[in-house]
From TrEMBL:
Pfam families the UniProt entry points to: Ribonuc_red_lgC (PF02867)
Protein name as it appears in the record: Ribonucleoside-diphosphate reductase
Organism: Candidatus Woesebacteria bacterium GW2011_GWB1_39_12
Top-rank taxon, per record: Bacteria
Cofactor: adenosylcob(III)alamin
Length: 562
């Protein structure tokens, strides 16, 4: 191990070879201004982040340097808030808060305050509304009737509309509602906007629509699966109705998704904005960083990167500022880590493997799972409470672009695409992009672009996609944020006739997942990534075009880890 560490430190980094696109994103999103007026390069960022975070636990110079090198070489990249906020006077470096809506006047007021504080200081939010009484229920103390959870969701949605998250990005918001809730059917269809609203959204992305700033999920528990499969269960009809209505919505518009909390995870209904972190406790946090599997050269190196990434995130639980006092109390109690993986599909492609369970990959995932024990060792060394859980696979976003690899467990989205991104409050620009993973493989091996399997190829055999996520979930103690890209609704592979087939496949794997979403191509206006021909993108590389309107920078998964 000692020789490996020295080799990693002495090895010439390739960060200077970062593509122009990745470098531009890095400079726009994460680079601080230096004293001479210039901006940090990637090596500067890696050092700044390592130094500030690890000094909070008085880490050794050796650990700081090893962390610096792994970040510099893009083998481990902390979540975007670490890259952006480390070293600033207010350094809230943890991406999201997990909140519970309480069924009282005081609870609603407190939730609005918590959500505002979280979003304004740079954290996305996920909120479980299942405890809020249904619309129309009698309010005994003051008289009248309750407006229900959806009205509170819309209030939070409007807070998000008015807040530029942490002063630098759009708000990321998630809502969850139990399948048992009396308002669940209205909730499932709440984002089925009228044709008039869709037309206005297409004309002006900023046009307000119901829950347009919020991603939504239906929450499933052990009772759901018991009721779904037992015709004699009193809740059987309701479970079936909720399930098939949700599946239909997923395939048509991408919403709702499902979140799943069964067995040992019973009661962990709270989620962050992208749903990879789970908790039972209001005001818990997500604390994210990802290992770039595509850049890991051996099982031995994987062990060291898992160790360093785990130690870094543990230190982050002492370094990060918080938006209000309860967050620190819950963080100290649970000390959650969200060590993730990206570059998984690139690793498979580099090794000539399909997007499917694999014996060699399993060896890397088994090492990944040792983060639990590593976290205990460093916690004892630094006299901190033991983390309750340590692994979560975020969808990542801009850090995936900086890493120049596939994001999370996602397959290559498409070989080439048009990427829209926000540039000021009204201006939207777009660029033609060649997927960096696909481009490297095509150029290195002189491959035909059509020979590389991407997300749309996998949509033709969706069971492979779902089965793979369920397999990887065995090694993740929190959750995996993953979105299945699908062809447009109404197309040959996604229509009324395919709903039953998709739902029958999904229900087989759903008890072994913690959550899943879909995104049919073109389901929402302002879609940030649009597939195009590889040859067309090749002709327009480096050119920037202007559109007007506002568009979320990432896919439906939100901005966690970005």
């Amino acid at each position: 191990m000692k020789n490996l560490k020295m080799e990693a430190i002495c090895k010439m980094s390739d960060y200077e070879n970062m593509s122009e696109f990745a470098r531009t994103i890095m400079l726009q999103r994460y680079a601080h201004e230096l004293k001479d007026g210039s901006k940090e390069d990637w090596n500067n960022i890696a050092y700044r982040v390592s130094k500030h975070v690890l000094k909070s636990v008085h880490a050794s110079k050796s650990l700081i340097e090893r962390t610096h090198v792994f970040i510099r070489d893009r083998k481990f990249i902390p979540g975007g808030r670490y890259l952006y906020a480390s070293g600033r006077p207010f350094h809230q470096v943890q991406n999201c808060l997990l909140l519970r809506a309480e069924d009282s006047r005081e609870g609603w007021s407190e939730l609005l305050q918590k959500a505002s504080m979280a979003l304004m200081t740079g954290a996305g939010i996920g909120i479980d509304y299942s405890d809020v009484r249904a619309n129309g229920k009698i309010i005994r103390k003051t008289g009248g009737t309750a407006t229900g959870p959806i009205s509170l969701m819309q209030m939070i949605n409007e807070v998000g509309r008015g807040v530029v998250q942490g002063g630098s990005r759009r708000s990321a918001i998630w809502s969850g509602l139990s399948w048992k809730h009396a308002d669940v059917h209205k909730y499932i269809g709440i984002k089925n906007w009228s044709e008039d609203v869709k037309a206005m959204k297409k004309k002006d992305f900023n046009f307000p629509a119901t829950l347009d700033m919020t991603n939504i999920s239906v929450q499933l528990d052990d009772d759901f699966f018991e009721a779904f499969g037992d015709e004699n269960n009193l809740m059987h009809s309701h479970a079936q109705s909720v399930y098939w209505a949700t599946v239909s919505g997923m395939l048509k518009s991408g919403e709702p998704g499902f979140s799943v909390d069964v067995g040992k995870n019973k009661g962990e209904t709270l989620r962050n904005a992208c749903c990879e972190i789970t908790s039972r406790d209001d005001s818990d946090i997500c604390n994210l960083g990802s290992i770039n599997l595509a850049r890991i050269s051996s099982l031995e190196e994987m062990k060291e990167v898992v160790e360093v990434g785990t130690a870094f995130l543990l230190a982050g639980t002492t370094y990060s500022d918080v938006p209000y006092a309860k967050v620190d109390q819950i963080r100290t109690k649970n000390r959650r880590l969200g060590l993730g993986i990206m570059g998984l599909h690139e690793w498979l492609l580099n090794n000539g493997k399909k997007y499917a369970p694999d014996e060699e990959l399993e060896k890397y995932l088994q090492i990944y799972a040792t983060s639990t024990e590593m976290a205990k060792q460093y916690s004892d060394k630094w006299e901190l409470s033991h983390p309750v859980k340590t692994r979560a696979i975020a969808p990542v976003g801009t850090i995936g672009i900086v890493a120049e690899t596939t994001t999370g467990i996602e397959p290559v989205f498409c070989l080439a695409y048009k990427r829209r991104y926000k540039k000021g409050p009204e201006l939207t620009e777009y660029q033609y992009i060649l997927d960096p993973t696909a481009k490297r493989l095509i150029e290195k091996n002189n491959l035909d672009p059509d020979s590389i399997e991407d997300a749309y190829d996998l949509s033709k055999n969706v069971e492979r996609r779902i089965e793979f996520q369920a397999w990887v979930q065995q090694y993740v103690d929190h959750a995996i944020s993953s979105t299945i890209n699908l062809p447009p609704w109404g197309s040959e592979l996604n229509n009324e006739g395919t709903v039953r087939k998709f739902g029958n496949i999904l229900i087989k794997y759903l008890p072994n997942l913690r959550g899943i979403t879909c995104y049919p191509d073109g389901a929402r206006t302002g879609q940030p990534l649009t597939p195009i021909k590889y040859s067309l993108a090749s002709k327009h590389l480096g050119q920037t075009y202007v559109e007007y309107g506002d568009v979320c920078e990432l896919t439906k998964g939100g901005t966690c880890g970005s």
